[in-house]
């Protein structure tokens, strides 16, 4: 057996370093001595008490080691449970963060829509109200009706003036024709008057 094996064995036997290996060796020697020696009853009782004391110490250490092992197992289970709880909490927090992000995006959209509604409301408030708009519309309708009536009256006057102008044009043309006819008649009369005078002159000359 190598030194490393010896050290490993001692560590397995005396894991906590509380002298269990030494106690077991002492107990073993006491048992061998008690079995092989020829001592008086008092010495045998003393050896027996010493062996029982060593055995009690070993049992106490063994129970202590068992309790420590149980506590370690319990602590390990607690740590595992705590680790699992932390993992679950992390998953829940991730879900909450995702929901919060979605809520934040929705809140931004709502805020944007609210700002647009406020701007639209301000623009609407700057415009005249319905009653005033209806009043102005009625005024415009009346003005349009007056303009239509005025236009109809002007068109009627223009038509009358056109008729009068046409009649005047016809009258002027007729008058011009009459004047031209009179001029032609006068010219013919003058021509007729000139011809006898020439004959008289010719007679007198002869």
From TrEMBL:
- Where are the annotated coiled coils located? 76-103, 130-157
GO terms in the biological process aspect are: mRNA export from nucleus; mRNA processing
**Record's subcellular location:** Nucleus
Cite the residue spans of the region called Disordered: 181-206
Domain of life, source organism = Eukaryota
Q: Which family does it belong to?
A: Belongs to the THOC7 family.
Recorded protein name is THO complex subunit
Originating species: Pediculus humanus subsp. corporis
């Amino acid at each position: 057996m190598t030194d490393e094996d010896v050290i490993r064995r001692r560590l397995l036997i005396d894991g906590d370093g509380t002298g269990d290996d030494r106690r077991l060796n002492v107990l073993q020697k006491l048992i061998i001595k008690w079995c092989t020696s020829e001592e008086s009853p008092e010495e045998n009782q003393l050896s027996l008490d010493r062996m029982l004391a060593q055995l009690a110490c070993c049992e106490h250490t063994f129970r202590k080691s068992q309790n420590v092992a149980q506590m370690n197992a319990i602590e390990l289970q607690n740590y595992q449970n705590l680790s699992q709880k932390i993992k679950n909490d992390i998953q829940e927090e991730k879900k909450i963060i995702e929901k919060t992000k979605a809520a934040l995006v929705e809140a931004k959209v709502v805020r944007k829509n609210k700002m647009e509604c406020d701007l639209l409301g301000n623009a609407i408030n700057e415009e005249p109200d319905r009653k005033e708009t209806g009043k102005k519309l009625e005024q415009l309708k009346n003005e349009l009706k007056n303009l239509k009536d005025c236009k109809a009256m002007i068109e009627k006057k223009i038509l009358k003036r056109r008729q009068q102008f046409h009649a005047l044009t016809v009258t002027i043309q007729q008058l011009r024709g009459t004047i031209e006819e009179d001029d032609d008649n006068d010219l013919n009369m003058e021509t007729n008057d000139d011809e006898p005078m020439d004959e008289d002159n010719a007679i007198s000359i002869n």
